[in-house]
Every structure is written in structure tokens, then in C-alpha cells.
Amino acid sequence: MSSVVFLRAVNVGGTNRCQPAQIAKQLAKFGVVNIGAVGTFVVREDVTESALRAAIANKLPFKCEIMICLARDIINLASKDHFSGQPSGLNIMRFVSVAAKRIRGGTRSDLHQTSKIKPQTSQLALNLPSHGDWLVKIIAIEGRFVLGLYRRQMKAISYLGKIEKFLGVAATTRSWNTIQKVAKILKQGPQN
Question: What's 80-175's CATH class?
């Protein structure tokens, strides 16, 4: 079955530099398709997670977390309208953080039990900061996927970095647009 790979902390802030497009070419035997510059790959061939993880790690000049998800999980995630009724606009970005493993309980109601921050309302799992106007807002957790919004402000980036601290597991963040693009490629099926 096809899979999707997310590399954590690649090509961010001048550290952990690599060329994802080159890695995809080097792993062409797995049908790897590069998505963007931060280490997101669609893997079209049926390859074991351990073989895929080893092949990608071998191509990186540094160590990093490698999150591998089944294609069907990404397609299922993208098929739902998670952001209905949420604020939107040019200054609000939709995101998904992919955790290295399933988050305890895997539901948004469990998040406040695993973090020190209590939700502001029963509708929300987490607002950062927890008082005043939010910069990062987590709206749902599905298995190992954390869905949310952030405001386009420099300070919001520091709060995005705190998500994994609150979850207690390594995570990497992608825009919702990236997730939709990945799902579209997966739905196209294998390329001959």
C-alpha cells in the first residue's frame, strides 16, 4: 500500500538542509514523489515501513524524525471538513501536525488531560496562549493528526513549536493545503 512520509525540522531556519527533490529522484524505485521543500513525500510503491525509513535515513546528511503514514489515513483525513465553522481569512492558516505515534487516547478531549493547559471552552482542545487572543488554536485530534489554526504572526511560530511538548510526542507541521495536495496525488493512484 502507498504511504506518505513527513520529515521533521528539515530546511527550517538554515538547519538540517537537504534537497527533497533529489532524495525523491534517488528513491525512484519506491515511486517517491516530492511535495515541497520541507520533506514531504508520497510513496506509491508497496514498501515496508522499516525499509522505507532506512532508505530515507540513508539519503539524509543528518538525523531527523521520520513520520510514515498509510495513504488511506491521509485520504481519510483530507476527506473531512475539519475547519467548518472555524475562523478564516488571509491571516489565519490551517495546519496539521503529524505525530510520530498515536496521541494518547487520540481524541481532542484527551488533550487537556495530557497537557498543563486547560481548554478555554468545551468546543476547543487548546488555545495558545491560554489567555487573550489565541495565536494557535487546536480544533481536533484524530489518531496521530492534530488539526488547527494559527495566525500569521512571528510569535505564533514559537507556539507551534510547543505543540509536541504538550502532546508528549515528536510532531511535524504542514499546511492543510499540503495535506490536500498529498491526498489528491494519492487518489490519482500509481503512475506507470
Answer: alpha beta
- DSSP class per residue in 57-99: HHH-SS---EEEEEHHHHHHHHTS-TTTTS--STTEEEEEEEE
For the chain, the domains span 3-77+180-188, 80-175
pLDDT tops 60 at residue 145: yes
What's the CATH code, domain 3-77+180-188? 3.30.70.1280
Long-range Cβ pairs for the range 106-113 (8 Å, 24+)? 106/141, 106/142, 106/143, 106/144, 107/141, 108/138, 108/139, 108/140, 108/141, 110/141, 111/138, 111/141, 111/166, 111/167
Asked if residue 1 has pLDDT above 80, the reply is no
| Dist. CA 111–CA 95, nearest whole Å | 17
Residues 6 or more apart in contact with residue 9 via CB below 8 angstroms: 15, 16, 64, 65, 172
